[in-house]
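Risk register update: the risk of archive-format incompatibility is retired. Evidence:
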Amino acid sequence: MSVLGHGIDLVECSRIAKVLENHGRRFLDRVLTPAEQQSASRYRNPVPFIAGRWAAKEAILKMIGTGWRGKIAWTDMEILPDKLGQPHVTLIGETARIAADKGITRVLLSITHTEHHAAASAIGLSANGD
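Archived output:
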């Protein structure tokens, strides 16, 4: 496996809380998949979780080298915990196409958050030694 890209992002939870307060369901539907929304609803305070997903999706786009452009959608990236709680990334749509064009077959993702900040780091790997 070879590393083909890396991205990192940091977001203030208060920024996400303000957007959530102002736009509610519309914001959630635009940024999180239904399964991610279900995961967020399990928290007494879902803001750090949502901020973590925001940072993770930003990090993924930095990893593939595009930023927000073209036909990319927030919901092209779904981040759900595996059996052990590690974030597992599923790419679909335009984001999956761009990653595949770059040879990225696997995304390693780490997310961390506190009450005030959320950060994420994404590493794109190839299946072969390219």
